[in-house]
């Protein structure tokens, strides 16, 4: 059965719903018309892989609903989440004469969503935006919360806005065409959320991982009971993040409590440093998060915050998500240097999101961790992986 998660923020005009519906792609036009009404032009931002697989169905549904659409194709990969791609989309919106009464749809993974949403947020000082995420990672993460942006030479997501969409449509059936690496990347993000949410979501994530290990996700999605359970699983992942966003939509600087939006960055500090140190080419974002989860757990143990049994549990579950690319050739100094450009810094202090237990995240200033411990842990970790 289709599921709906309502995302509430402090801004009344920006409340929206996320629909999770297997087969939802074929009804995208009706869904968009329900949200937007008639007589709107739609600028679709996608990439060749996604549009090659699903573009005909997507465009046909929008046309049947009476929408005038044009498509802007961008590159596929983290390295295309940059100023050049952002400028390309803005130029496209101007040439297609997208007005304040029109809409942008991001149709693809997290990179498409981040850059398309950013462009929608600044074109004519903001036009309506709809999101149709097509990877597991983008479904459970970037589909909710309104973060948009691009990377710069200094680091990941250094430029962007908070801009909530008008609606999100998730069709889990598109996951059948994901590569094994993309599935692994998505589940690493699910593990991250389970680790900070609590035992219930963490165990549920582990259970799904054990099921997917024995069958491909494409095979499982042909089974009605699995489809229903998987829709509920995605909804549970989204609902957890939505609760955090409702309390701390724009990640208030002084909020360092257990439900601060900052806790959603568990595993991300080290992950972002890995991505930057490798030029955004070697790892998918979720794969980097997988390593980041384990690194943060080890650091938590070294600080006396986390029991070794929980560290081992997290390592086992990340391993179940799939094989991660080797990183032993990464330059350790480059990784440490990349940490200094992390956008989560408050003043001159980096903020580490660590764990006291499953469901018990804690924010620890870098000053309480220390350069020496971080450097030593990086050296040990990279050498072992």
Describe the structure.
It is a single chain. By secondary structure, the protein is of the alpha/beta class. The protein has two domains: 3-177, Rossmann fold (3-Layer(aba) Sandwich); 180-384, Dehydroquinate synthase-like - alpha domain (Dehydroquinate synthase-like, alpha domain, Up-down Bundle), CATH 1.20.1090.10. 49% of the residues lie in helices and 17% in strands. The chain has a seven-stranded mixed β-sheet, sandwiched between helices. Strand 7 and strand 8 form a beta hairpin. Helix 6 runs antiparallel to helix 7 and helix 13 packs across helix 15 (371-384). It is globular, with a radius of gyration of 20 Å.
Keywords for this entry:
single chain, 385 residues, alpha/beta, Rossmann fold, Dehydroquinate synthase-like, alpha domain, 2 domains, seven-stranded mixed beta sheet, two-stranded antiparallel sheet, globular
Helix content: 40-55%
CATH class of the largest domain: Mainly Alpha
* Rg, Cα atoms, Å: 20 Å
Net shape:
globular
Order of strands across the main sheet = 1-2-9-6-5-3-4
**CATH-defined architecture of the largest domain:** Up-down Bundle
- Beta-strand residue percentage: 15-25%
Terminal CA distance reads 41 Å
Report the count of strand segments.
11
Computed structural class: alpha/beta
User: Main beta sheet: strand number and arrangement?
Assistant: 7 strands, mixed
Total count of domains: 2
The pLDDT mean sits at 92
The CATH topology of the largest domain comes to Dehydroquinate synthase-like, alpha domain
The secondary-structure element order is EEHEHEHEHEHEEEHHHHHHHHEEHH
Question: What is the fourth-level CATH superfamily of the largest domain?
Answer: Dehydroquinate synthase-like - alpha domain
Poorly predicted sequence stretches spanning 5 or more consecutive residues: none
Please tally the helical runs, counting DSSP H or I stretches of 4 or more residues.
15
